Amino acid sequence: MMRFALSTNWNNMRLNDGAAIADEAAELGFDALELGFRTQPEQIAGFKSRLGQMPVDSVHAYCPVPVGAPSGHPELHRLASRDADERALARVLLRKTMACAAELGARVVVTHAGYVDMDGWFVNLGTDALRRLLVFKDGKENPGRPVYVKYLAKALKRRRKRGRKLLDVFRKELDILLPDFQKAGVTLALENLPRLEGFPDVEEAKALMKDYAGAPVRLWFDTGHARVRECHRWSASAGEISRTLAGSICGMHLNDVKDFHDDHRQPGWGQVDFAALAPLAKRDIVRVFEPHPPVTFAELKTSLEAVRKLWK
Length: 312
Prior knowledge:
The chain is an alpha/beta fold.
């Protein structure tokens, strides 16, 4: 039977004890956990106590929440950054997350690598600026709006050029980090992000996978993020990308969205075509439900049962 994990980000703000979090996931019908970036250090012991019944398949950086951080967040520091100090801090936190994963027997650390700077002297072509151009006077969002199409073409050109420069910086960081991941027996997985600036994009991901073939770095596919990118016309369809990159993807977050916004709802709630993602899901990868806390117990249980049936 296909195995599914639940991200502890769903319930670890409500339940303090790691064992209780694991028990609730089991009650829902999940087979494993992903320790989310909101995991507190004091919750780790409880997760360890349940490893026999509820293993940890993946850990989302940064985990546990770093000492001194106001709260958990996947982008406290970014490995893909033009700032050397920022990258150094990201390396420290990634190594700590890697150690947590190895201790709990998880095979993957999921990370948000970073973003390409899209600011300009005269025109800002970043995601927020582009999104304002999507909206008609009636409030409806339409990526076919002429002014959006015009500026999107300029933004994509800037994104490609600046992405190549960040790629060179990022390779040097991987050269430093990956020997540690190799030794620990843990894979670093680079997640697709729901902004135009998100790094790596599809072409950058292809280049990295070619450069680091055989190394412990792979890709992580978030279904909701892919749908958001598709709707904004930043990327091809989620289904097409999942097929293009399938051989390099080691895991996926199962999230649903209503097109333009990163809703992080349960599969079946929005417009993600999960049937089209079945070929990817049936590969030997980690599959993680990553709903936001407002999703109810009943909604999540029903969604898991529906996905199991769809992908059987």
